[in-house]
Write a structure and sequence with these properties.
The complex is a heterotrimer of chains A (320), B (297) and C (422). Helix content of chain B is 71%, strand content 0%. Chain B has helices at 14-46, 50-55, 68-76, 87-117, 123-131, 138-151, 158-168, 170-181, 186-194, 199-210, 212-228, 231-235, 244-252, 261-294. The model of chain B is unreliable at 1-6 and 293-297 (pLDDT under 50). Classes of the chains: A mainly alpha (320), B mainly alpha (297), C alpha/beta (422). Chains in contact: A-B, A-C, B-C. Chains A and B meet through α1, α2, α4, α5 and α6 of A and α1, α4, α5, α6 and α8 of B.
Chain lengths: 320, 297, 422
């Protein structure tokens, strides 16, 4: 099992539980031993409790105050949320999140999978291709954004180069077009992550039981059918890990946009993380920023709920 | 890497095979060119003089190779009022990334081991509980972290930042290691237990020797993320303590000057070099780690 | 405490000298300056101040925060939250009062009184720099924002010699430039540049209008016909900008003006400092004039960079604050700082004969504006209103410039946003 399968939580729970401790009169050392897994997990559990859930709860509380320069703790009801939803820029930001998030997650997954399938065709120089496709992941979003900003800008980049070569009518100005700029963010994001996704899928494909594939081929199934019916279903756990990585990337997208478009032209490519950061810190409207941060977590649920529903359905099917 | 004994690419007629080979290579080469383009542009730009850039086009081959941008970035460029180049910050990043990555990796390995080989009541819940942390946006964590670091006296220090990254990375390191260790057969562990080996003995004698592939994955993941992180890096450090990403942004901020594209390029490459090297040299282990982890899938 | 009372009323430089010669219990001045000047003339000028600070025996930590404005404020808030506020921070305008109110700023009286700050400082700055009757911040310069820079080469190309004085002239020249293949208005599409040009046009509609709109935040004015006319004029100017504008730095746009590829640019006078560094000179390469006006009224939109001081317990840091404040306000620093930055000193008692013609004109206009009541704080550069108001106006202006929003909508949106944030 290469990767997370939350679906297994219930199924495997209990199965791996050890029963070998039922010895009479365990000594003190034995008792420590038997609790060792819980003991070693305790620091992580406490850290998560405090530094994840504690911080989220703190933010949730602050979102119900009218905090300005610094967080204050005077309860003020929903005022921050009202201000938030009245804000045009927030409306643009959350629309962009869904737009960017869906395109980014779907396209990266498809390209990553397609590249993995191509790489699986016993090609020459696989390591070379893999390194090139993977390197964007090694580079920070800041750099990714900066470089693509030059390349995509009509003044400095591809458009000018092609025009200089003589094709004067050539136009590629999405980055300065308010309706299209968000797609350049999608593009840069996909460029950065798809190689990594490819590697994850490739590892999964390589681990599929070759007997299954062989059997299908002997039955005369065409290759595309084998990928569709056997290999892709078999790497589903990897798909879920990929989705977790991509969704959290999409939600947290900040530096990429900052470096690529600075949220512009105008405010056209503002994303929630930029809005929250700006409102919380530059403007000193901390409560409203906290409300935005909480809404980001709510938006995450929009992506997580279909998955949880799917899990439930699968579990029910298995129970039958 | 894969030792599936059956080669499906050998199927079909010769024409079909030639056609599919052509498609495969065309697509891969096409993507490779698209992917490598920015790296090439940046590398070329870093060797051009400003004059060359401003009188010509930004994307072009250098008229003559000029190394001044590299020198400026490394040793004379200004980050705010400090004009000693980016080199002091490079070392800061190393001092931050190495301990943070090592600690994270150790925690990941132990967590993954405990959660898969010693499942206890609620262990899957514990896993999901820890994993949720990967979704929390950094902007939200900034002030609470500042408060915590202030309370424990680590404000404005590298160790404070190490702590932030170790805890922030918990979700992913646990995820990676847990998934990998699930592929180690439980029988191995059971046999050892019958022989009387305890938690740590089994970890040291059986699990750790099987772990290098996944440890490489975790090291690469954490190293890349911590090295490239900007928000916490710039907020929780000051002066010469800043990590390289913060210095990079500071040096290349086009605030009041003519943009020095060549300097920006050299800075970008220098800042990305360690992660690039890690990817190129450890890349095959990375692949192996994930593959090995999938064997049982 | 005896140390403190001993120091009170004494010029710190003298004391620092005394300390170096030994005898008294040593306080070693240290300062950590958090600022946004990561590159360019601001950074270089600060590096010189740092050298002076070190010469006096101090320890200087330069904390330049890169990135967005938000990055600096995030870092500042994080430090305050951690109970470890930096000794000195680049803050400006009403923000100084906001911080003084929220967490408290250090009282600089022991430096300001002997230094006679309230006399020598430009009068418009005194209120901004003080809180509760004492100085809490030190200004290093006076920038004027409402400048229009005109390309000499572009003027030559259309057979003109003088920069336009009113909008009709401006529009006519812009059309000629467009016909001659010159980009009439050079601009970088970043939000702060957007609001800078917008503010210049507002001032160009009239001083009273500017005051009512941006100082009084008068709702009727913000929604009124004059605001609509402002946006109409801005729309024309947006149509005269080139395609490559989004995300461009102002300095890249400025080079277009210098080369004669573009005609006009609206920017503050940091322009002058950086163009000099690049070897372009006023009069020969470009003209600096007040933006065109519709009614002949005269205004001076003020921007000033300043450093505020957070309260500190450590004596070393208190000494550091005192030494830095003293240095920053000293005539010597004010001169080299402003020669580099293109601005003019925040002190009124400095001889400007070594400054260039644009800077001398700025000083002349400043005096004129003080006499005629035309000196107003800049909205665009966070001098007139708190960040939340400035930013929400900026957002709408940016959106206007990048969409086909109507002038009426823009005016109403601004009025609504101001109402929501007052």
């Amino acid at each position: 099992m290469a990767t997370i399968d939350l679906g297994q939580i219930k199924r495997t729970y209990g199965a791996g539980r050890e029963t070998s401790y039922a010895r009479p009169k365990p000594s003190f050392g034995d008792r420590i031993q038997s609790w060792m897994p819980q003991i070693v997990m305790t620091p992580s559990i406490l850290a998560a409790m405090f530094f994840t859930y504690g911080f989220v709860l703190w933010t949730l509380y602050v979102s119900f105050t009218n905090s300005q320069m610094m967080p204050s703790y005077e309860f003020a009801g929903l005022i921050s949320y009202q201000k938030l939803w009245a804000n045009t820029r927030w409306q643009i930001a959350y629309t962009n999140f869904f737009l960017f998030g869906s395109f980014y997650v779907v396209i990266t997954t498809i390209i990553g999978l397609a590249l993995a399938i191509f790489m699986d065709q016993r090609i020459r120089a696989e390591a070379f291709f893999r390194s090139i496709l993977l390197y964007p992941m090694a580079i920070s979003f800041v750099v990714t954004g900066l470089v693509w900003r030059w390349l995509l800008n009509p003044d400095t980049g591809v458009e000018k180069m092609v025009q200089d070569l003589g094709w004067l009518g050539f136009q590629f100005d999405w980055i300065v077009d308010r309706d299209m700029a968000i797609y350049t963010v999608v593009f840069a994001g996909v460029w950065q992550a798809s190689g990594f996704v490819m590697v994850l899928f490739l590892a999964g494909i390589r681990s599929v039981d070759s007997n299954l594939v062989k059997a299908a081929q002997i039955d005369g199934a065409p290759m595309w059918m084998i990928y569709w019916r056997i290999i892709i279903p078999a790497i589903q756990p990897i798909l879920i890990a990929v989705l977790i990585i991509l969704v959290q990337n999409a939600l947290k997208t900040f530096e990429l946009v900052q470096a690529l478009t600075s949220g512009g032209p105008g405010i056209a490519t503002t994303v929630p993380a930029i809005f929250v950061f700006d409102v919380m810190y530059a403007r000193g409207q901390f409560g409203q920023g906290a409300a935005g941060a909480i809404m980001m977590l709510v938006m995450l649920l929009v992506f997580l709920i279909p998955y949880l529903v799917y899990l439930r359905m699968r579990r029910r099917r298995e129970a039958e | 890497m894969s030792d599936a004994g059956f080669d499906h690419t050998k199927l079909g007629t010769l024409q079909q095979r030639i056609f599919s080979r052509t498609v495969v290579y065309t697509v891969l080469i096409g993507f490779t060119i698209l992917y490598v383009l920015p790296l090439i542009v940046v590398t070329l730009t870093s060797f051009r003089s400003l004059e060359d850039i401003y009188t010509g086009s930004l994307i072009a081959f250098p008229r003559s190779f000029d190394f001044s941008a590299w020198g400026k970035v490394w040793s004379t460029g200004c980050v705010g009022g400090n004009c000693q180049g980016i080199s002091p910050y490079f070392i800061n990043s190393v001092e931050l990334v190495v301990p943070a990555t090592l600690i994270s990796t150790a925690i990941g390995a132990i967590n993954g081991y405990a959660l898969t080989k010693w499942r206890f009541k609620g262990s899957e819940f514990v896993f999901a509980f820890i994993l949720f942390g990967v979704f929390i946006p950094g902007q939200l964590m900034l002030l609470p972290w500042a408060w915590v670091l202030g309370k424990i006296g680590l404000s404005n220090s590298t160790w404070g930042l190490v702590m932030v990254h170790v805890i922030g990375g918990l979700g992913f390191v646990t995820l990676f290691c847990r998934n990998y260790y699930m592929s180690i057969p439980d029988e191995l562990i059971k046999a050892a237990r019958i022989d009387g080996a305890g938690f740590w003995t089994i970890f040291r004698r059986i699990v750790l020797p099987l772990s290098p592939p996944i440890l490489v994955v975790v090291v690469i993941w954490q190293f890349t993320h911590i090295w490239n992180e900007f928000l916490f890096a710039t907020t929780f450090t000051s002066g010469y303590n800043k990590p390289i990403t913060a210095a990079l942004i500071a040096m290349t901020a086009p605030q009041t000057d003519i943009r020095e594209y060549n300097v920006e390029s050299a800075a970008v490459i220098i800042a990305a070099l360690p992660t690039l090297l890690i990817y190129f040299f450890a890349g095959r282990y990375f692949m192996r780690g994930l593959t090995a982890g999938s064997v049982k899938g | 405490m005896t140390m403190k009372s001993l120091l009170k009323g004494t010029a710190v430089i003298a004391v620092a000298g005394a300390l170096l010669s030994g005898g008294v219990a040593r306080a070693e001045p240290e300062v950590e300056l958090m600022h946004m000047w990561t590159t360019g003339s601001g950074a270089e000028a600060l590096a010189k101040v740092a050298d002076k600070f070190r010469e006096q025996g101090g320890t200087w930590t330069d904390n330049a925060i890169a990135g967005h404005t938000a990055s600096q404020y995030a870092a500042l808030r994080a430090r305050v939250m951690a109970g470890d506020a930096p000794t000195a921070v680049q803050l400006k305008g009403p923000n100084i009062h906001e911080w003084a109110e929220a967490v408290g700023l250090a009282d600089l009286s022991r430096i300001a009184e002997p230094g006679n700050w309230s006399e020598v400082m430009a009068p418009a700055l005194v209120d901004i720099m003080s809180y509760d009757g004492h100085f809490v911040a030190v200004p290093v310069n006076i920038h004027r924002v409402n400048w229009m820079y005109t390309s000499r080469k572009a003027l030559d190309a259309i057979g003109e010699t003088e920069a336009p004085e009113n909008w009709d002239q401006f529009n006519a020249m812009a059309e000629k430039m467009e016909a001659a293949g010159i980009i009439p208005v050079a601009h970088g599409g970043q939000d702060w540049q957007d609001i800078t040009i917008f503010e210049a046009v507002v001032m160009g509609m009239g001083l009273d209008f500017y005051k009512k709109a941006f100082i009084d935040l008068d709702d009727e004015t913000l929604r009124g016909l004059e605001m609509v006319a402002t946006f109409d004029q801005l729309r024309k100017m947006v149509d005269w900008m080139d395609e490559g504008m989004p995300g461009r730095a102002w300095s890249e746009a400025a080079v277009l003006v210098m080369k004669g590829e573009a005609g006009f640019q609206f920017q503050g006078d940091w322009y002058v400092g950086d163009m000099s560094r690049l070897g372009y000179e006023p009069d020969t390469d470009y003209l600096c004039t007040t933006q065109p006006t519709a009614d002949g009224s005269f205004g001076y939109t003020l921007n000033s960079d300043s450093f505020a001081f957070f309260e500190q317990d450590s004596e070393d840091r208190q000494e550091g604050q005192a030494l830095f404040a003293e240095l920053a306000m000293s005539p010597e620093v004010q001169v080299f700082f402003n020669q580099a930055k293109g601005s003019i000193p925040a002190r009124m008692d400095i001889d400007l004969s070594d400054f260039n013609s644009c800077q001398q004109l700025s000083a002349e206009h400043l005096n004129q504006a003080i006499e005629t009541g035309g000196l107003v704080p800049s909205l665009a550069h966070s001098m007139a209103q708190p960040q939340r108001i400035r930013s929400s106006v900026m957002e709408i202006v940016s959106n206007f410039m990048n969409t086909d929003m109507s002038s009426e909508d823009a005016a109403n949106q601004i009025a609504d946003a101001v109402q929501a944030n007052i």
